[in-house]
Design brief:
The protein has 3 domains: 108 residues, Acyl-CoA dehydrogenase/oxidase, N-terminal domain (Butyryl-Coa Dehydrogenase, subunit A, domain 1, Orthogonal Bundle), CATH 1.10.540.10; 107 residues, Butyryl-CoA Dehydrogenase, subunit A, domain 2 (Beta Barrel); 139 residues, Butyryl-CoA Dehydrogenase, subunit A, domain 3, CATH 1.20.140. By secondary structure, the chain is α+β, with helices and mostly antiparallel strands. Helix 6 packs antiparallel against helix 7, helix 6 packs antiparallel against helix 9 and helix 8 packs antiparallel against helix 10. Bound molecules: flavin-adenine dinucleotide.
């Protein structure tokens, strides 16, 4: 077994890292404070082809897999997490069209999504459908060749700069759940924005709440089979971006802490000389490594076509908690200056805090891991059939 990226993957990582560190990081504090959407950065990412990273080459994409998505996401999240989420949510909508759309839908949307001329956003959550999507109240009723949508969506990341929202709506009675939810590609201008929220972190990319009132969409905008959208969604793999975002913040917090504690002197020593600091920094590095290993393992299994439920949820819980813990330690070890907006550290902590909640709260992912473990070992037998 080789714990090693390929030559091409390393080249991709180095290329993204250079751009992220040289171009994004110097403006990250300012963009965050101004709550300014990273429009130019996303346009640069599109020029580099990353907005079509995981799309097949026949649609103008780069034809890369989830490992490459995890690699790119870590680098972007290490400098400004919301840039990574804007890119990943867009690629997630593209993945749904690619996997479940018709040939015509793929031909219509994917080439312009690869170039970022068409931008996607995800409309799954609602006020009463957070962790539990069976609570979706938005409805879609069929009228001839059209569907009439009513309801609202909440936390639609990218919405203000997107063209379409992949909107999940109830199309069947409760007793048919979860086979009663269908997805539609709804133009953003059909929604009315109700609330843009003032959030603790992730301040450069807004996630508004918006309503739909008797919005008609043709059946050609339905993505996937009627009633099967939520079930199909579980097969999407771009969700690996969430733990990868955690790895990015955990790593950035470590890097900044090592740099700061190496040069900051108190009691005639650099504070990195103190055993208490060394142990903390060592633990921070352990968290980065375990978070990255679990994330890349989940991505690799996805690319090899294996089941990822257990691995993805493990990575999500561990990597997002690593981001929170490392950002918190980084603030402590930066002392007073870490508590100010002069350094990146306070933003790491605010941005990291989102990750244990969004993408499904960690508690739900812990349930998944537990369920998967019991399903694997029904009689307590040690039946490990996985490589790693
Ligand atoms: C900034 C931001 C961006 C987002 N972007 C998007 C997006 O683009 N598209 C989209 O559709 N959604 C998005 N979301 C929604 C996100 O996925 C939900 O916030 C998340 O699923 C949790 O739902 P909730 O906030 O309603 O929390 P709730 O479901 O009300 O849960 C509240 C808390 O209860 C606890 N809890 C929940 N379930 C369990 C359980 N099974 N066991 C134990 N404890 C539990 C957890 O501590 C959880 O944090 C975003 C959210 C935020 C804040």
């Amino acid at each position: 077994m080789k714990f090693q990226l390929t030559e091409e993957q390393r080249r991709l990582r180095d290329e993204v890292r250079r751009y992220a560190q040289d171009v994004i990081k110097p403006q990250a504090i300012e963009l965050d404070h101004a709550e300014e959407h990273p429009t130019e950065i996303l346009s640069d990412l599109s020029d580099r082809g990353y907005t079509g990273l995981t799309l097949p080459e026949e649609y103008g994409g780069m034809g890369e897999g989830m490992l490459e998505l995890a690699i790119i996401t870590e680098e972007l999240s290490a400098v400004l997490m919301p840039v990574a989420s804007a890119l990943a949510l867009h690629l997630g909508v593209a993945e749904a069209i690619q996997r479940f759309g018709t040939t015509e839908q793929r031909d219509t949307y994917l080439p312009s999504m690869a170039t970022y001329d068409t931008v996607g956003a995800l409309g799954l959550s609602e006020e009463n459908a957070g962790s539990d999507k069976s609570g979706i109240e938005t409805t879609a009723e069929r009228e001839g060749d059209e569907w009439v949508l009513n309801g609202h969506k909440q936390w639609i990341t990218n919405f203000l700069h997107a063209d379409y929202v992949l909107t999940y709506a109830k199309t069947g009675p409760e007793r048919e759940g979860p086979h009663n939810i269908t997805a539609f590609l709804v133009p953003t201008d059909e929604f009315d924005v109700q609330e843009t929220w003032d959030t603790f972190g992730a301040r450069t990319v807004k996630s508004p709440r918006a309503t739909l009132s008797d919005v008609r969409v043709p059946d050609q905008q339905r993505i996937g089979a009627v009633g099967e959208a939520y079930v199909q969604r579980k097969n999407l793999q771009t969700g690996v971006n969430v733990p990868a975002r955690g790895v990015g913040i955990a790593r950035a917090a470590l890097d900044d802490t090592v740099a700061y504690t190496s040069q900051r002197e108190q009691f005639d020593h650099s504070i990195g000389d103190f055993q208490g600091v060394k142990w903390t920094v060592g633990e921070m590095a352990q968290r980065v490594d375990t978070a990255r290993l679990l994330t890349l393992r989940a991505a690799d299994r996805a690319d090899r076509g294996h089941d990822t439920a257990r691995e993805f949820s493990m990575a999500k819980v561990l990597a997002t908690q690593a981001a929170v813990d490392n950002a918190n330690e980084a603030m402590q070890l930066h002392g007073g200056i870490g508590y100010t907006t002069e350094t990146h550290v306070e933003r790491y902590l605010r941005d990291a805090r989102l990750l244990t909640i969004a993408g499904g709260p960690n508690e739900g992912h812990k349930d998944t891991v537990g369920d998967e473990v019991y399903a694997e070992h029904p009689r307590g037998a040690s039946d490990h059939d996985r490589d790693i």
